[in-house]
Amino acid sequence: MSSQTLHTGTDKHSGSTTGTPTINRRYRNRRLPAAGTVGRFTALAVAAALTLGPVLWTLSTSLRAPSESFNLPPSFLPINPDFTAYQEVFRQINVGLLVLNSALVTGLIALGQMASATLAGYAFARLDFRGKKAIFSLVLATMMVPVQVTIVPVFMLIRGMGLSDTLLALILPAIPTAFGTFLMRQYFLGLPNDFAEAAALDGAGPWRIFRSVYVPLAVPGMAIVGILAFNFHWNEFFRPLILTISEQNFTLPLGLVTLQGNLGTGSISVVLAGVILSMLPALVVFIFGQRTLREGLTAGASK
Amino acid sequence: MTTTSTAPRQTVKPPAARRSFVERWLAMIFLAPTLLGMALFTFLPIIGSLVLAFFRWDIISAPQFVGFANFASLAEDPTVRVSFLNTIVFVIVAVILQLGIALGLASMLQARMPSWLRVFLRSTFFFPLVLSAASVSIFMRYMFNEQFGVVNWLLSLIGIPAVPWLTSPVASAAVVVLVYVWQNFGFSFLLFLGALTNIPKELHEAANLDGATGWKQFSNVTLPLISPTVLVASVMAIISALQVFDQPYVLTNGGPGDSTRTAVMVIFESAFQQLEFGEASAIGLVLTVLILAVTALQFRLSRRFVFYQ
Amino acid sequence: MTSEKTPGQPAPLHAPRPGGGLSQLTRRSLLGLTGLAVAGATVGAWPRLTGTDIPGRGSKGLKIAILGTAADAAARQGLVKAFTAAHPDIPVQVQAIQGADWKDFFSKILTMVAAGTPPDIVYVATEGAQLFADKLAEPLDDYVRRDAADMSDYFDDVHPSLLEAFMYQGSLYQLPLDWNAANMYMNTTTFAQAGLDRPKDDWTQDDFSATLRALRKARPADFTPYYWTNRLFGGVVPWLYANDTSFLTETKAAGGDWFWDRFYPNDPARATRGGGYQWLAPNAEDGRVIETFDYLRELVAEGLGVRPESGGGNALVGLFGNNRIGTTPAGGYWAQGLHDAGMTADQFDVQFFPRWRTQRHQFGAAGYAIMRTAKDKDAAWEWVKFCSSRDAMQLAIAKPNTTPTRRSMVNESFYAATGPKHWKVFYDTLDRFPTSGPIPAPPQQAAVETALMKNVSTAVSGSSADVRAAMGTLQRDLELALRRNS
């Protein structure tokens, strides 16, 4: 991020974002640059606090003894963290199995999307065939069909395949990906032609050019598709709600909601402890995949 | 999203005709997994929905052909009407908030500041995006509880009486919007951040020389330059907002009354709770047509307002 | 912006070295290795991916679905063991299905039917009794008649009102095993603070209002005198019943004499028994219904009661245990819940629901239903019959987390560890108020429940005029709901 070099003045955009910039204000800002800066940093600080606050509240409440979870004022810093809520989560739901299911489902979807999107994206970007534009538009159009619209026929299809109430029922329909295909197409379009030309001169056929030149180059793009898929399907709620029946096939978000529903003790702490536990894998993705995820989202949309 | 990328770049053109023959076959093989998968899991089900919309079917007994009756009952079912209205209002309010907040924060982040602070802020605004909507809705539900929620407690500190956030119509709709925007503004934020960072600084300098500052510079220079991103961000935000389900399902279950019931919730309820699979398909088709129409309209409008370099 | 000019586009991190070379080779072999590892892991995880590792999946035994978690299924292993000892030729498999509430559970069962993997036996509560009777369940009439001699021990011990709740169009579909009436729970600590004693058995709606006001006066903040949830059980319905009305017109189907004459010849309320309840028409604009909703609206407006949250109530035990709630309607199931939350027997107590025009109570019950699709219905009946025996019920209901339908089991020792002191209220409800009725749940219960719940919240949060408007909407919504498939 090199934006520091872009704007040397401190208040060029002042007022642009607060919605009601007035002439007066701009003049004042000119004479007193500090005022705009203060306003801007106050706004940023408030936004950051509003973004992090709920998460911190969740964390601190999950560290309270279940019997104290209703106490007011709510403490943001538990002086004596209490982990009984976490023990209770492990007692009530099979966290290990939920994580395994979520990992299997999201992992295989991510890999499947990476493979299929790479192939399809490459075909759309670098191979010539009839009806390319029409087929590509058709693929993109599938992004606009809500999953709720197709879920009933998909459900019947799954039944026909003998896969009712299995993890495969969640995985298979999620592998064809319009967004991933789109991303990989853009990615391949962004790669230079020279290598392919050089390889073609060496007598390499289309398959060799793909395999030896472009696949190795496309690994970062594939990582973007993979991490996006992982993030989306890790948090997915609706399809697992419909397509799984046995508790043994639940994924994490579903397990959490039932934790809330089955809760005989009615303790907020326990539910929130489950929420925090489910956040941990997302946090890992956030820390290690943040850059890739960010670039992927930006790349996908700016074209 | 496609209009921006015009004709695909010329690929390597081999002289031999055999080559293009091989390429065509290779393309077919490469496309097969995606296209077959989509045919099976998207196009076939859409056709299935289309057929189902003309039947009354409870999944237990045999389907019964009813013609357009499902569409007719849609039109007169007040719950369906309200849910579509809710969805439209939700999309308008949530998307404007989401884009406004994202654009505001992204441009504020262009200010001079230590790089650790920039990284911290950027990561913070991005973070809610990696959480699941279900778990966010669970903890937000506690925060907005009327009796023991932290939000009302904070308000009580400044003398505001307890607000029935989740049990009164207007407040609960506001909560659903807030929770949705809280989680999703980071997406648009990242898009805008990328676009703003890519504006050549000479343009701003030139604008400065012309005496354009502040809002004027923003609206005359910055906004046109990032308008393609604004278009993409708004298309994506609208498509995703039109399909909102997790937040109202967990937060309010559509209530109180129908005040937070959205179109996809009604699809879910009529199919999987009331066993009206035909009616559910009909609602789904109407929603799909609505989404397609909105997207088409956006691209239409964009020809006038979006500035391509 | 054309595709050539794409800011923010990821640049390739590595340019390929001319002629391939070592790094490319290793990358390729790395890719290959990854592929192998993925393939291996997929094969290893195949049973998990296809669900074949779930115990009992695909077994030929009787599949029994209950609402709950895997822990709840495990808790019935003692019952399964006892059954297997008695019937070694009938293998059974208890499968727990999770759901936020009964409605959720039923839609999961229907999904299983749609998926082609229906259970043979389902534990169904009154909420779904008619849905199952109408579409999915097998009547028990022939079995009950055939095994009448064995069954009289059960019928002698179970109140006829509970059986009547499972009659549908003259046939019996389930043998209720557990049940709960909507009685009134009191937090004795907060009652003591307000200087209140336990109310009398025949306390009235006015007494109730006065009680709430006294509670409010003693604790003006951070406290709710009356907490209620928005659902079919324990929401607005107990008040409607006490006011001698309901949001659906209640009638009784003809028939059922074969059952009452044979098993309950001495029932004092014999004349009122029939072939099962019928809820065929909406009744939301009835004057008493409006009056009842208006009363609840006033409680909310006066700050005596909360606005009910739909589906919620999981915070209820915690709030009650923390003395932040004065009263709330609940059944015998709550004794164990409050005990687990750390309340001692003297910290809470229970009383009948207050009298209005009547003191008719609402109750809910549950028992096993045999599915029409069951492969071996005779074997399924053996399970149903076995579970109604005293020994089996003692295994199934070891703690007061619900009320057993066998009166002989509702005794001093059952509540010894938990309280409340006046546990007798639970079963006495049926004797004292013999007209007490089940949760109003026609076959279209999901749509009916949705219609009721969404209009309750709007009715009680506005003005008196809003109540009338909300009841108009409820009437219309119920009309639509009753026209539905289920």
Which shape of chain B, going by the Cα principal axes?
A: globular
Biggest interface and which pair forms it? A-B, 129 and 125 residues
Structural class of the secondary elements of chain B? Answer: mainly alpha
Q: Give the ordered list of helices and strands of chain A.
A: HHHHHHHHHHHHH
Query: What percent strand of chain A?
Result: under 5%
* Alpha-beta content class of chain A: mainly alpha
Strand count of chain A: 0
Unreliable segments of 5+ consecutive residues of chain A: 1-32
Query: In what range is the share of β-strand residues of chain B?
Result: under 5%
Question: Biggest sheet of chain A: strands, sense, closure?
Answer: none
Q: Show unreliable segments of chain B.
A: 1-10
Task: Indicate the percent of residues in helices of chain B.
Answer: over 70%
Distance between the termini of chain B: 16 Å
User: Numbering strands along the chain, what is their spatial order in the largest sheet of chain B?
Assistant: 1-2
Radius of gyration of chain A: 25 Å
Q: Helix segment count of chain A? A: 13
Please state the average pLDDT score of chain B: 85
Helical proportion of chain A, percent range: 55-70%
**Cα radius of gyration of chain B in angstroms:** 24 Å
Oligomer: heterotrimer
Terminal Cα span of chain A: 19 Å
